[in-house]
Specification:
Its EC number is 3.6.3.17. This is Xylose import ATP-binding protein XylG. Keywords: ATP-binding, Hydrolase, Nucleotide-binding. Pfam families: ABC_tran (PF00005). This protein is an alpha/beta fold. It folds into two domains: 161 residues, Rossmann fold; 78 residues, no CATH class. Helix content is 33%, strand content 29%. The strands form three sheets. It has a six-stranded mixed sheet with strand order 6-9-10-3-11-12, with helices on both faces. The chain has a four-stranded antiparallel sheet with strand order 2-1-4-5, covered by helices on one side. Strands 7-8 form a two-stranded antiparallel ribbon. It is globular and about 60 Å long. The structure holds adenosine-5'-diphosphate (ADP) and magnesium ion. Adenosine-5'-diphosphate (ADP) binds next to strand 2 and helix 2.
Length: 257
């Protein structure tokens, strides 16, 4: 499925619902009965101080960590846990903070990686359709408003912002439910941050849910449709962007409310 076809997907309804997710590490309760839902077409920013449980929640949703208790509901089906492969099958992709791009491969190759279009088969060998791959890459980049001057260059030659755009385009091409962003703007300058926020908006506009871990509250208030705050493993706020002031959000996050 290409990114362009996704705009036909229903933009309403919940992509993922978490019910009472709990996870311990030894005696540390990283998540305590966390219940939340993330809707298609919606940008949910996940905030909280260090140790709040953000990474733990994202790892559970991306299939790299199992909860001790609770359920994840997707399309009316309950999952006690799922692994990374199943998460991808369910249409969930993660843009990791340390971008998992293959430096020696081109932008186009990175974007279709793992989902390479085949042209024809010689017995067990499927011949990679380079023209189709470039087309999908161009479409995916366009879907997130990114321009890469030369999509045939190895990505090691590109800037941090361009690499970020490729990682997002890759996730959009592969996802058909939700894209999770792990601090996508943490390492970027002002201009690249603006481009990344714009790309995240475009991801949601295709009808995908976007779950974004973000530290900078300026960025949060610029982009979030909804803000969910965690503190010591508890959900301490779950509000539309206009539903809580920055100072109150900061107070909730730090426990000084
Ligand atoms: N693999 C782990 N082993 C032990 N403790 C962990 C592990 N991962 C997270 N924790 C603990 O769980 C709590 C939540 O961590 P985390 O989800 O990383 O929070 P955040 O991403 O919001 O900073 C913290 O107290 C952290 O030390
Ligand atoms: Mg973390």
């Amino acid at each position: 499925m290409t990114s362009l076809q996704k705009s036909d997907a229903p933009a309403a309804g919940s992509a993922v619902v978490c019910r009472n997710l709990t996870r311990f590490f030894g005696a540390v309760r990283a998540l305590h009965q966390v219940s939340l839902s993330i809707n298609r077409g919606e940008i949910v920013c996940l905030v909280g101080d260090n140790g709040a449980g953000k990474s733990t929640l994202v790892k559970i949703l991306s299939g790299t960590l199992a909860p001790d208790d609770g359920r994840i509901e997707i399309d009316g089906r309950d999952y006690r846990r799922y692994d990374m492969r199943e998460a991808q099958r369910l249409g969930i992709q993660t843009v990791h903070q340390h971008l998992a791009l293959c430096d020696k491969l081109s932008a186009a190759e990175n974007i279709v990686l793992g989902r390479e279009p085949g042209r024809f088969r010689f017995g067990p060998i499927e011949v990679f359709d380079r023209a189709r791959a470039r087309e999908i890459a161009e479409q995916s980049l366009k879907a997130v408003s990114a321009t890469i001057p030369n999509i045939d260059l190895p990505v090691e030659k590109l800037s941090g912002g361009q690499r970020q755009a490729i990682a997002i385009a890759r996730a959009v091409n592969a996802a058909d439910r939700m894209v999770i962003f792990d601090e996508p703007t943490a390492a970027l300058g002002i201009k690249q941050t603006a481009a990344t926020l714009d790309a995240i908006r475009k991801v949601a506009d295709t009808g995908l849910a976007a779950l974004v871990i973000m530290h900078n509250l300026d960025d949060v208030y610029e982009i979030a449709d909804r803000i969910i705050a965690l503190r010591l493993g508890f959900v301490v706020a779950d509000v539309p962007r206009s539903g809580m002031s920055r100072s109150e959000l900061a107070a909730r996050m730090s426990g000084h409310d």
